Amino acid sequence: MPFNRPGILFVMTGASGVGKDTIRQAALPSIDELFFSVSATTRPRRPGEVHGKQYFFYEKAAFERLLAEDALLEHAEYVDDFYGTPAAPVKEALAGGRDVLLELELVGAREVKRRVPEAVMIFIAPPSLSELERRLRGRGTDSESRIQKRLARAREEIRAVKEFGYVVVNDTLPTAVRDFCSIIYAERARTALLSRRDIANFLREL
Ligand code: 5GP
C-alpha cells in the first residue's frame, strides 16, 4: 500500500561494550533508508576513529558552545566526557519522512523520550554481566578505572530496561541483528502510521 508516513525516531541504548556499534554496522546494510545520527563528543579519539564518522570530536569549549547555541537534541556526561546529538540533521531527516537511528546512553535516551514521546526505544542487553566485563577488557581501549566506571554505569542502565519498548540480547551477533532488524521493520509496518487521507486516495483508484 503506497503511503507517506512520518519519519520514525529509533533510539538504541545499552551498556558500553555490549555491542551496539557492531549490531548497527551489521544491520544497517540490510535496512533501507535509515539515517544514523553521528554524535558530538569530548572523549579522546580511539585509534582508527575519524572525525565525522564515528563521532564529531570536540574540545570541551567547543562542545559548550554547541550547548549554548541549543544545537543539541540531548546531551549527557558519561565517564568524564560529554556526548550529544546534533539536532539539525535529525530534525531535517524526520521532517523529510526519513527514519533516524540514535545510539545513546541512558540519560540521553530518557531526554529524547521526554522530548519525542513517540520515539521507539530499543535496549541492547548483554547475555550476562561477566560477559560484558570480558568484552570491555577485550576491547583494550579503556584504563582499569574507566572499565570499572563503565561497568557501574552498565548495572544502572540494565536496571532501567523496562523503560524501553524492546530488548535485544546480544548473545550471538546474527540473532541480535535479526531481532534488531525485525523491530525496525515491524515499527515501519504499524497501521497507526497510515493517514486517513492516504487510505482514501488509495481507495479512489479502484
Ligand atoms: P563510547 O565512548 O564507548 O563511544 O560511548 C560511550 C557511551 O556514550 C555509549 O553508551 C554510547 O552509546 C553513548 N553515546 C554516544 N553518542 C551519544 C550521544 O550523542 N548522546 C548520549 N547521551 N550518549 C551517547
Automatic annotation (TrEMBL):
Primary localisation category: cytoplasm
Entry GO CC: cytosol
Top-rank taxon, per record: Bacteria
One MF term in the entry's GO annotations: GMP kinase activity
Recorded catalytic activity of this chain's protein: GMP + ATP = GDP + ADP
Classification via Gene3D superfamilies: Guanylate Kinase phosphate binding domain, P-loop containing nucleotide triphosphate hydrolases
Top enzyme class: transferase
CDD domains named among the record's database cross-references: GMPK
EC number: 2.7.4.8
SUPFAM superfamilies assigned: P-loop containing nucleoside triphosphate hydrolases (SSF52540)
Domain Guanylate kinase-like, first and last residues per copy: 7-185
Keywords recorded for this protein, A-Z: ATP-binding, Cytoplasm, Kinase, Nucleotide-binding, Transferase
Pfam families linked: Guanylate_kin
Subcellular location: Cytoplasm
Binding site for ATP: G14, A15, S16, G17, V18, G19, K20, D21
InterPro entries: GK/Ca_channel_bsu, Guanylate_kin-like_dom, Guanylate_kinase, P-loop_NTPase
Similarity comment text for this entry: Belongs to the guanylate kinase family.
Function of the molecule: Essential for recycling GMP and indirectly, cGMP.
Name the UniProt record assigns to this protein: Guanylate kinase
Organism: uncultured Truepera sp
Phylogenetic classification of the source organism: Bacteria, Thermotogati, Deinococcota, Deinococci, Trueperales
Gene that encodes the chain: gmk
